[in-house]
Amino acid sequence: MIEVKELSMRYGRKLAVDDLSFSVKPGLVTGFLGPNGAGKSTTMRAVLGLEVPAAGEALVDGKPYASLRRPMLTMGALLDAGAVHGGRSARAHLGCLARSNGIKARRTGVVLDQVGLTEVADRRIGEFSLGMRQRLGIAAALLGDPAVLMFDEPLNGLDPEGIRWIRDLLRSLAAEGRTVLLSSHLMNELAVTADHVVVIGRGRLVADTAMDALAAQFQRDVLVRTAYPDRLMETLRAHSATVTVEDGALLVRGLDATEIGELALRTGIALRELTPRNASLEEAFMELTEDSVEYAATKAAR
Fold this sequence. Notes:
This protein is an alpha/beta fold. It is built from ten helices and 13 strands. Helix 2 packs across helix 3 and helix 3 crosses helix 4.
């Protein structure tokens, strides 16, 4: 597991992370969300021991990452795909990392093949596109075959095929029982990749919940279609629901789909459609963090 316990981080007078606590559990892809400046990257750097906390601690499998003798065997991470020596080849870069952690040399070929870079393994990294560097960074994270993985914006620079590939990769790693923490601003991708979400704003915890629970928390309405809309509308309103009509369908607030279905059954009204409509992850995120946005542009005048 990754455990963040009452973590606080300061840069001069600025409190970047404020008494933050959460845990990232195995078997799940956990999305790590927050507006720009919320403290996500700072928190991830603290997990890797690259920042010294003002208070609290961040642990990997119960220990500070910096105390691990061969850390890449415990956790792999990608924070900055550009933090590589451009003059080295991809194979040489991974070879250096492998030797530093006592990893057998043949493992470099395995991860190069896993991320699709075998054919360019001997090219200089300086010639790589951003997407290729992201793949190399992911290969480095996988090099020690670790049980814990952490990625900061790994989708940047990837084409649609690459995004689909990493989505499938992360979900397969979690299915193997590994712990996966993923930070990204691509809400549509997180919505179909993450099982759990941790949301922070201005360095503080805003939400720590399962993706399904977050969707239910921000349910907009239930769309109902029936051949007898007037009768059903009367029944629903008698049970304190708010009902509007749109394109022949009833949009119901105040009752969930189960309650609506049971009322329709008791009154003998057949339903043609009963669809809960939840807010998207982006809409839920915007609502959760509306008071935590540090850099907000003004709306253009019309």
